[in-house]
Amino acid sequence: MKGTGVFLAVAIAAPALASPAKLEARASSTSSGKTPQVTVKGNAFWAGDERFYIRGVDYQPGGSSQVEDPIAEPDKCKRDIEKFKDLGINTVRIYTVDNSANHDECMNLLADAGIYLALDVNTPKYSLNRNEPKSSYNDVYLQNIFATIDAFANYDNTLLFFSGNEVINDDKTTGAAPYVKAVTRDMRQYIGSRGYRKIPVGYSAADVDSNRFEMASYMNCGTDDERSDFFAFNDYSWCDPSSYTKSGWDQKVKQYGNYSIPLFLSEYGCNTNDRKFEEVAALYSDKMTGVYSGGLVYEYSEEGSNYGLVKISGSDITDKSDYTAFKSALKDTPAPSGDGGFKSDGGASECPKQSDTWDVTGDALPAIPEPAKKYMKSGAGEGKGLSGSGSQNAGTGSTGTASAGSGTVTETASASGSGSSSSGSAGAASGLKVPAFETAPLVAGLVVVASTFFGAALL
Fold first, then answer.
1. Which of 31, 42, 268, 429 is deepest in the core (most CB within 10 A)?
2. Domain of residue 8, CATH code
């Protein structure tokens, strides 16, 4: 979040299932059909067979000074969703939520409007401390972010999870990178172990030129269980009036040209001058779609830093000039058709070498704290919400270095063993549908039938 250090989030991911146990179908809480589940293929997102581009806004009314959950109060989200529809966006990013609250109504309203959620799993009390990453990476912290996964994994329009936001914000804090990556690994393993669909997990990097590319490479290097599903960064380098070359965006496209996972802007919208959002036309043009998958404008509501598109006063909303400019930019630049020149395959990046601006050697990661391992089988349990006692300097930290492949999923829980911890979620909604690509239950059933003929029950 621009201008604040309180949201020090960390990541999630779902590695390939090695030897999964029985998987049962899960109901979904969003079944409007307007938000098909999004997956990753190559360096792009896909909604079914169509390339998916993020066209959205960062959404946290109250900002960092008034921490609240914008999708736990239906009246407020109804108010704002009408504006989202008018803007023509398809995604909102939320920096913090209450994982003990019920989100069914707002998530369903977003789905009905064709809007996805990009969610940071951290909160001010449950996050990595960039200055003390070792002690803040502990089982109490992991339990709470796993509980957030539980609360949102069953919604079709949960687009992705951010494992962290701007944890590294200068050259001196790059030593926190192994802990960011470890949380990403742990989240991916938790998603896979609990039998959820493979919701993409990745990191949102700060606008720091000296180590941003190193962080991108680092999050995509190493064994498959350690690599992110995507990488995002906050970019305020295009300040109107500007251009594709004047802003330096052409050089970034060149720099990330061989990057093998989806890349997008988790924040953009320089406000040095009047914002016309001229960068929208470039971002969704064929000059960039082979590398980028869109972005999120900072930010929806005015929080005192002059980045807001609207001003909110109770139930009243006043459009700022930025709102009209962004709406026009989106209208004039429809989402591209076709595959956008995406790369269908590509290997891991090379881990960056230690330097004056990158204080990390190799790809050795801390092992998951021993008490946190049980959550993979038993589930995380109840989320602590926004009023919990916090996780920093609590619980048990990592006591060693992880072995290669330690984050691989080896056993998958049945649906009865996992699910949302919030009341009235997934199973309670009417008209629910089974995620289309969660095929393990069908395969398991066919194996059982086949075993009556071939004498081998392989569940």
1. 268
2. 3.20.20.80
Report pLDDT digits (tens) over 52-63: 999 999 999 987
Ranking 17-21, 177-181, 230-234 by mean pLDDT, the lowest is 17-21
Choice among 105, 166, 214, 303 that is catalytic: 166
| CA separation for the pair 345, 309 (Å, rounded) | 38
Lowest-confidence segment of 20-29, 72-81, 211-220 by average pLDDT: 20-29
> Among this protein's residues, is 166 annotated catalytic?
yes
Is residue 72 within 8 Å of 44, Cβ to Cβ?
no
> Cβ(72)–Cβ(101) under 8 Å?
yes
Provide the residue type at 299 as one letter: E
Residue 70 and residue 393: Cα distance in Å, rounded?
28
Residue 429 region, left (φ>0) first, then alpha (ψ -120 to 50), else beta? beta
Instruction: Compute the CA torsion angle 358, 360, 361, 362 (nearest 10 deg).
Output: -100
Question: Which one is catalytic: 214, 226, 267, 299?
Answer: 267
Count of domains for the chain:
1
Q: What is the DSSP letter of 456?
A: -
Residue 267 is among the residues annotated as catalytic for this protein: yes
Query: Terminus-to-terminus CA distance in the chain, angstroms?
Result: 46
pLDDT tens, position by position, 333-368: 999 999 999 999 889 999 999 999 999 998 899 999
> DSSP labels for 368-393?
PPGGGTTHHHH------TTSS---TT
What is the span of the domain harbouring residue 311?
Answer: 1-459
